[in-house]
Amino acid sequence: MTSGSDWQTRVGRAWADEWRRTDRSFAGLTGHLLATIADQPGTRVLDIGCGAGELTLAVASARPEASVVGVDVSGDLIATAQARGECRAVFHHGDAGQFVDPAGKPDLLISRHGVMFFADPPAVFRHLAGSAAPGARLVFSCFRDPAENPWAGLFAPLFAPAPPEPAPPEPAPSEPVLAFPPGPFAFADPAHVERCLTGWCDIRFTPVDFRYVAGAGEDPVADAVGFFSRIGPAAARLAATDPAERGDVQANMAAILQDHLRDGEVAFPAAAWIVTALSDEGTRANPLV
Ligand SMILES: C[S@@+](CC[C@H](N)C(=O)[O-])C[C@H]1O[C@@H](n2cnc3c(N)ncnc32)[C@H](O)[C@@H]1O
C-alpha cells in the first residue's frame, strides 16, 4: 500500500530526487499516452498527480493555446516540476480530491499513473467530474496486473514476507468497499476501475505494453540497483533492513538484475492500461464553482 501521506513524505521525496530515472522508466509508455491525449479535444488541461511534471510539460508544449495545470499532493515533486522551468505550465501543490483550479474548469483531465493512490477513489473521481467542464474527457494510465509486470516481484525472494497490513475499518453501509488498497496496482482490475469512476461514463480500456528501463549508462546494473533502492516495492523493504545488511541485499539485487542486462540496458516488460472516459453530467453529485 502507498498512501497519500507516503507521497507527502518518504515516497514523494524519493520520486523528486529520482525524477530523471522515473521519467526514463515510463518513457515507453509516455508516447502511447500522448498519442491518446492528442486525439482528445481540450483547451483547459489538468494533470492529476502530475509528479515532476513530464506529462504536463509535454502537453503544454503540444498545445500552445491551452491552459495546462498540474496538481500533486507532494510538495517535493511540485517544487521539482516548477524548477524544471521548461515552459508555461502551472503547478499547484494540493490533493486532487479537493483541488479546484482557480483559473477555470478543465475540459481534459490526464494522468500518467497518478490516480491509483486515493484513499477513496469514487469520492475523488466524483469531485473531479463535478469540478470539470461539461462533457470533459479523462485519459489516464495505470499498471495492469503484477503478474504482467515481472519487475514488481523481482526482489521478493530477498526479503522476509511483509507483515500483513492491518484490516481496514468496517465501512459504513453507504461507503464503497474497496477491494484494492491504494498502491501502484490498485487499478489493475477494469471492473474495479469502473466502480471507482463515479461521475464518468463511456469508460474504455486499451492495453499497452512497454519496456520499463531500470538501468543504463556506464554501469547499467549498478544504475538499476540505485533506482530500485529508491523506487518501487523493494525500496521500503530495503529502508527497513538493518543498515549493516543493506550492502549484502544490494549485492543480491545486482545478481538478479545482471540476468536482465541486454544491449547496455536493464529493462523489463511492463503492462499498463490507458483508460478513457467522458464526464457524466447527469450523475453529478458535487457541483462546484
Ligand atoms: C506514480 S507517481 C506518478 C507521477 C507522475 N504522474 C509521473 O508520471 O511521473 C504518483 C503521483 O500521484 C501523486 N498523488 C498521490 N495521491 C495524490 C492525491 N490525492 N492528489 C494529488 N496527487 C496525488 C503522488 O504524489 C505522485 O506524484
Textual characterization of the structure:
This protein is of the alpha/beta class and 289 residues long. Helix 2 (10-17) packs parallel to helix 5, helix 3 (19-38) packs parallel to helix 4 and helix 8 packs across helix 10. The chain has helices spanning 4-8, 10-17, 19-38, 54-62, 75-84, 121-130, 190-196, 220-230, 233-239, 243-258, and strands spanning 44-48, 67-72, 90-93, 108-112, 137-143, 200-215, 261-262, 265-279. Strands 1, 2, 3, 4, 5, 6, 7 and 8 form an eight-stranded mixed beta sheet that branches. The protein has one domain (4-163, 170-213, 270-281): Rossmann fold, CATH 3.40.50.150. Residues 282-289 have low confidence and may be disordered. The longest helix has 20 residues, at 19-38. Helix content is 36%, strand content 21%. The structure holds S-adenosylmethionine. S-adenosylmethionine (SAM) binds at residues 4, 7, 12, 15, 22, 26, 49-52, 54-55, 71-74, 77, 95-97, 112-114, 117-118.
Query: Share of helix among residues?
Result: 25-40%
CATH architecture: 3-Layer(aba) Sandwich
Strand content: 15-25%
Q: How many structural domains can be distinguished in the coordinates? A: 1
- CATH superfamily annotation: Vaccinia Virus protein VP39
Structural class: alpha/beta
CATH class: Alpha Beta
What's the helix count? Answer: 10
Low-confidence parts: 282-289
